[in-house]
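Hi L., both proteins are below.
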Amino acid sequence: MSILGTKVRSGAGAYAGTKYAIEALSEALRMELAGTGIRVTAIEPGLVKTELHDRWPVPPAKSLNIPHPLVPADVAECIMFALTRPPHVNIPRLMVVPGEQQL
């Protein structure tokens, strides 16, 4: 999920709506599984540089003025952080964004 699960910007309403839905489903699942030992975490990254943007005429990093977007390894580290917490620790949401990205 991206930060558009908690934020909306002009022109991205439908995309943000799908992310809001995933956030709600994740939260409901987390509550339903509470006490079972199964943990649910929604990882919400900001702009991540991937090949998805390679063919865009103006890549999001440029249009959003984010010279140092996240890379997939940054998101992987967040996932590993959530997975390696002690069993009694649950992280419902973890948002990570590039330093230049405004929320």
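That was the first. Here is the second:
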Amino acid sequence: MTVKELEQRVTALEEQVRRLNGEVAAAKSGRNKDWLASIEKYAGDEDLLSIFREAQKLREKDRRKAPLRPSARRKPRS
């Protein structure tokens, strides 16, 4: 390969890396924005809060019904 061909190849690779880094950064920032947008969309929604309260009551009821776990200590080997 000639020096000129190597320079062109390195230039193309640098451009590709720059483009991929931009895509990764955009994807990361988009995820955060989607998460925040979801939170903002339902913030203060009384129907959703009511569902959460009812779900919490069901979880607490299930916890009271669940048997206690046995001790986490190991039995000694003989």
